[in-house]
Write the structure tokens for this entry.
Amino acid sequence: MSQNSSPPQLVQFYDPTLNAPDEEGRTLSSILTWPDSRLEDCHDYIQQIFPLPEQSPYNPSAPLISPEIFSAFRQRADLRGQLRQSFIRILSFYGLEQRISAADSGSIEDVVLEIVKAPNFDEASRRWIIRFDHNHLRITRIIRCLRVLGLEQEAEAFFLTLARVYQSCEGKISKRSLTFWTRAARRPLWLAPEVNDVGETGKGFLWEFEEGRKNKGIKKELEGETADNNVDVSASKTSGVDLIPQNTTSSQGPAPAHSLN
């Protein structure tokens, strides 16, 4: 971006100083004050506050994560901080909240982030602890967005809680939804959850990012250091959930039936 050009709309929207509105005239701060009923009934804000690199079939005009936006969020703590506020608000909508505690290391820089049930869980969870619902699509989107834009610890904590809820709710949530949540949490960033073709490389800038991070991790290992937050994506299955389909022509049909909203 040249010095004379403006930042992308999504960066301006998330910039805490600019607080720029989206195409509908809504600012991030205003959306985060909406009551739960409006968050449930409105269907075109979720793509704005949790953007993806892939186009939404339900809102094709929604902003996409470009290389420039990706770099801005990865480099700017203030943008990630605003995204974290969006995540905290949507957690409340789902009856969850985050809990931060000190790690065993005792370092003030090391914290443990957990997602736990909030006091409103029993009521709020009725929106999504069902066989299938549009909120399942939203959850897939949220996990992927957090990972892509640099809140990987939050994405992992969210996924682990979802997996525990899935195990404890006696089949009320479909395995297909869990499959897509797992793909969003554990696949390489360049491979979108709905993609069935293993040969696709997805967004090139995400592939380049992960290749660079992998190479840095290899270098650290060669130097005898431990690569922190290294996600193993070599396996095709985790806890019985398909991450990278081995048979892309399955009679069950293609994954895009779960296309993100």
In short: The beta strands are 96-102, 111-117, 237-238, 241-242.
